Task: structure prediction
Amino acid sequence: MIGVRLGRPHILRSVTPRAATASLPLLVALVLAGGQARAVETPPTKREGQAPVPSLAQAGADPFAAPADVAPAPTGTPAAPAPGASPATPATPTPATPAPATPGAPAASDDRPGKPALGPAPSPAASTEPRVLISEVVIEGLADHPERERLELAAYAVMAVTPGNAITRSELETDLQAIYATGWFSDVRIQPQDGPLGVRLVVSVVPNPVLTKVSLDPVDAKLPDTVLQDTFAGDYGKTLNLVTLQGRMQELQKWYADQGFSLARVTGPSRVGPDGDVQLLVRQGTVKGVEVQFLNKEGSATNDKGQPIKGKTKEWVITREISIKTGEVFNRRNLEDDLKRLYGTGLFSDVKVTLRPEPEDPGSVVIVLGVVEQSTGSLSGGLGYSQSQGVFGQIQVQDSNLFGRAWDLSTSFTYGQFGGLADISFSDPWIKGDRFRTAFRFKAFISRDAPQVFQSQNNGNIFTVSDFYQAPGTQVAYNIFSPINPLGDVFPSVTAARIAAETTGQNLSWFQFDGNSVLIQRVGANVQFVRPLNGGNPFKRAPWTVLLGLTGQVATPMDFSGTSRRFGLATPNEATALFTAPTNSIICLAYNCAARNQLLGLRLAATMSTLNDPRNPTKGNFLSLGTEQFFSVGPDSPTFNRLRGSFTHYIPVRWLKFYKGCRPKAGETEDCKQALAFQVSAGTVIGDLPPYEAFCLGGGNSVRGYFDCDLGVGRSFGEATIEYRFPLFSIVSGELFVDGGTTFGSQTKVPGNLGGLLNKPGSGFSIGTGLIVTTPVGPLRLEVASQDFTGEWRFNLGVGWKF
Result:
């Protein structure tokens, strides 16, 4: 059946057979002047409501375009130029290359689809173009087509030519392009014929095949098959429409962009089979290599003499942080993560990225990293205060990029009111060649400090005793320097006093009071290996990290002068002279009452973090578990195991809205880091426990209403904290908290019962509030908290959040 478009009756009546016959030679002449009417080189003016001419070639400067001597596939959407390429003026879209002709279609010739059939004629004024009167418009080529009516209506709907109208060659060209622009046809031809009423136009069309399959070239494209099938699900079994196909290709392009494949381009179709098999070409954008370019502070790659800038850092230190390897598909998200890791090394003040297209390999780019190194050597010093050191001064020398290998070497010296510390440390954040990203740390040290287990803020302290002898069955010991004793005399040493008492037949205990603070000197070193459980992928964000370490040290109790001391005496602060002391108040300061202990321990720890921000989290969990086994290497070397763990949980809330970021206006992004935080910690020691290795409760990082170690000294402990954090100003936050802790009654199980001698309660809680100020060196914390519900309040100044 042939589709016929008839004119209005009154118009048809004005078209006589003679007039139509006279017009036929003129129309034929017009058509033949430019060849068979089918397409033009220049696109027609778009009409309102009319789809654009379907063309799928890429225009403009594109690293994925074919070489200059190869004709690009048609498209209607200009591709974005690759980074570093100069954008070019988009080319005029041309009709898509047709599919192979279906049975019954006109034979292919030199004027096949994709080549202009109506050549550009001289451009006379529109008013001087000759007009030909049309009596009938007929569409052929849709016989037995399953969507014949739909396609006929689509063709008729876009044609301006109607029977009874006198048309020009330009109008005929416009209609031809309009029919082709519907996207339903792979070939369109217009032929004039002599009809019974005059000139009739026969529009011969070749419809596109029914869509049955869509495939990608290459077949290993990143786009999942499920996404491809879901995109075209509504088009299968229907006539292929090139306009709709272009829209679907844009959807695929958007999927690539959403997944971070910003250089990927979907073009084509590269092939349309007669059976409806459509193949699309995907240029995903591969990485041909990674280059490092050192820049100066002004961003230039050369110095004043035109010579390339030489950097200190080894290139492999930089490139190993780049997860995208040669031959892989470029992904913008992965590159952003890589840049974060580069900045995280602390070696660079700026990193500039350029993607350089490779002309000889379209679709490939080279990632050029322009890095600006920052100074990694430093000399620093400062003053501070701590309960263990008192007022102290510190000086540190550090190089965080030793030999350009990202090695960190530092040495520091601290001297304080009650002791000091000297150490040298070395760390390699990523052992070269290790695919697990294992880090290595080493530290050697010598330190002296006054452990808080031997101190109390209000209930006295444990002071050094030079010598002590306890006679069997006695509960009181006498000071050898005081005549207030059963012998009524003073003695030069404990041994002399013991001999004198035995001579008189008396069973007496003696001590030589020294009266200095107890210090513990530690000399040793430790080695640690830290590895994230990433399965061998160094770029994977692994929540779990494990640590294996070995520690060896010699611990020596001593007095303030540095003389070794084995014993200590619990004494009230107000005591100025001691004549006698209960024998149970005189304790051994080290394991086995030795002058020094050798500690050799193997440590295994693991952490798990799902925090959304490592510095100021508002959501996620943090779990830390650890065990440290100490082995005996001699009679004065204890064997024990220390277990410890903690769990932290954050819940985002929006309770208080003091900060303007918590009250965003329309179109503004909310900035309200507010959270309810919970932390639970616990630990215990199994085996031979040296007194100075006991757990301490109380202080700025424990129960904050108590001074350091003033709540309890135990073999076991448990602590819990509930804290509400909320922003007040841009750099100031507030907090409300409740802390609680207990030794589970284990104070008496610590050798010497240090907590009991100093009247430490062993359990308690505190409530308080504080301000946190964000500074360039980190958050500073000022808090005030009460001891239980008493009137005792304590102020605390610390660095960083408690947890």
Summary: The first strand starts at residue 3 and ends at 5.
